[in-house]
């Protein structure tokens, strides 16, 4: 008799139903696993047989065939151990109680029969919920946001013996109250920085507020010590908190990558410029999320952007345009979400002092041009805001800045208007251009003005689109229903970057 037990397989964040079929066949005693298993799944036969022996069942003299269906998909997780063990016990008559076809079994087995969590438990649970499962048997993991899984009956089992007892109705397991409040979702904001503490840079703070409200990318150019990194590291303090669905998505990505996330707030990733393309985009034999996916729903900060390899930077084109990244390898092709706000920071020249009032630039015009060319034109086009920063004179700066909390409230209100306008959780920087124009069309005089500026500054169609998106966000911050002329003017100034030639810098 063939026994069929269900589990969940993962292909990136996408989950699919895996049917574990177990049958005893005549022949030399062995346990054979088929269905494109990788090394971690092939080794399951030793773990499963050892845990069954610890449970009191010896099947070393039997020939068991375990088939993981669908057979055309590569299986690369020890998540199927529990389903295999239950299937073997059922096939050999040690488990007589029926197993519901609406139940999925997840977890890895240790040699003594203990059930352990593995990477990717949360995306597997969410996939089970989406596939219509009613029950999921799994080990307890403190990182699981249980109060968001109310429609799914999660049965936590610590050992194989507990799972069998529950299936036979001999024991009812109860979840301890301490497990019901995971700290990862409801932890308060803890920031050590605040915009109120940053002296000067009022134009830059305004631009960052617009970027946070509409999900726009920003490139900051300025000499060393002008505050580029400080502004970028303070930027997350004005971002709104993640919604429940967004938090689940972010936690799922971190679990697949095998990393921990300290809170359910927008992530902030800051890779070094020596990072490889695989670490930035994602990859490996079994593709895992890279920095662009770990920054999903948050911020990716590339300091010294021109020092990154040009090939690596050009790989950002797809995620910046589509909000997702596709990784193709021999074993599989997976797609991960990568909807982030890109903050870039770079010097105006190799030495960093082109245009400085206090230091002399030692770079030749050829060196300056070669340095700027490290960031390709398509990447420049995908940056919504271009900021020129200068060193602040602390003796002359007297204006008091607003706190991050005050700015964040305006950002949250602007985003609320965007969600209501588009009918879904999407910002002006990510909504399709057709829907943007349908909801907020430009007046004829505004279109003519934009075309004149685009012709004068040689802006591409993509840049013109980004200016319209910026203008829509500025109008949301101001509370106007339509795109105002002042908002369009301000959006066009955000695409203008102060540049100096070698001769101009010397004259200063």
UniProtKB/TrEMBL annotation:
One of its GO terms (molecular function) is ATP binding. CDD domains: AAA. It comes from the Bacteria. InterPro entries: AAA+_ATPase, CHLI-like, Mg_chelat-rel, Mg_chelat-rel_C, Mg_chelatse_chII-like_cat_dom, P-loop_NTPase, Ribosomal_Su5_D2-typ_SF, Ribsml_uS5_D2-typ_fold_subgr. Residues 214-374 form the AAA+ ATPase domain. Belongs to the Mg-chelatase subunits D/I family. ComM subfamily. PANTHER family: COMPETENCE PROTEIN COMM, MAGNESIUM-CHELATASE SUBUNIT CHLI. This is Magnesium chelatase subunit ChlI. It comes from Geobacillus thermopakistaniensis (strain MAS1).
């Amino acid at each position: 008799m063939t026994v069929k037990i269900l589990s969940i397989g993962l292909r990136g964040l996408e989950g699919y139903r895996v049917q574990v079929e177990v049958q005893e066949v005549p022949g030399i005693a062995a346990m054979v696993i088929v269905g494109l298993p990788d090394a971690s799944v092939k080794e399951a036969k030793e773990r499963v047989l050892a845990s069954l022996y610890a449970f009191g069942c010896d099947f070393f003299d039997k020939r068991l065939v375990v088939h993981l269906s669908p057979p055309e998909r590569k299986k690369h997780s020890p998540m199927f151990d529990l389903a295999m063990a239950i299937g073997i016990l059922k096939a050999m008559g040690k488990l007589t109680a029926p197993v519901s076809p609406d139940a999925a079994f997840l977890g890895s087995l240790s040699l003594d029969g203990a059930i352990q969590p593995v990477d990717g438990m949360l995306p597997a649970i969410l996939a089970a919920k989406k596939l219509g499962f009613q029950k999921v048997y799994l080990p307890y993991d403190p990182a699981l946001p249980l109060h968001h899984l109310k429609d799914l009956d999660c049965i936590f089992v610590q050992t194989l013996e507990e799972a069998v007892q529950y299936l036979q109705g001999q024991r009812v397991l109860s979840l301890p109250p301490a497990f019901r409040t995971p700290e990862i979702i409801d932890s308060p904001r803890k920031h050590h920085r605040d915009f109120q503490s940053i002296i000067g840079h009022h134009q830059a703070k305004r631009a960052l507020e617009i970027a946070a409200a509409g999900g726009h990318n920003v490139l900051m150019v300025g000499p060393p010590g002008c505050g580029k990194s400080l502004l970028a590291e303070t930027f997350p303090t004005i971002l709104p908190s993640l919604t429940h669905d967004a938090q689940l998505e972010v936690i799922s990505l971190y679990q697949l990558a095998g990393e921990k996330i300290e809170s359910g707030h927008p992530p902030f990733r800051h890779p070094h410029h020596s990072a490889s393309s695989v670490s930035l985009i994602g990859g490996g034999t079994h593709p895992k999320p890279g920095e662009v996916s770990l920054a999903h729903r948050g911020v990716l900060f590339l300091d010294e952007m021109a020092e990154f390899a040009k090939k690596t930077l050009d790989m950002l084109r797809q995620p910046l345009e589509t909000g997702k990244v596709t990784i193709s390898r021999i074993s599989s092709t997976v797609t991960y979400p990568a909807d982030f706000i890109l903050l870039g920071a770079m010097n105006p020249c190799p030495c960093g002092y082109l245009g400085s009032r206090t230091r002399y630039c030692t770079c030749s015009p050829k060196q300056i041009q070669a340095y700027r060319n490290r960031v390709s034109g398509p990447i420049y086009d995908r940056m919504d805001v271009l900021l020129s920063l200068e060193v602040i004179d602390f003796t002359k700066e007297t204006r008091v800045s607003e706190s991050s909390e005050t700015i964040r409230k305006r950002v949250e209100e602007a985003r609320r208007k965007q969600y209501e306008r588009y009918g879904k959780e999407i910002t002006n920087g990510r909504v399709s251009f057709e829907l943007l124009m349908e909801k907020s069309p430009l007046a004829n005089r505004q279109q003519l003005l934009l075309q004149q500026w685009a012709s004068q500054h040689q802006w591409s169609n993509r840049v013109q689109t980004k200016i319209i998106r910026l203008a829509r966000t500025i109008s949301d911050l101001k509370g106007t229903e339509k795109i105002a002329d002042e908002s369009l003017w301000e959006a066009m100034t955000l695409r203008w970057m102060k540049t100096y030639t070698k001769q101009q810098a010397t004259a200063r």
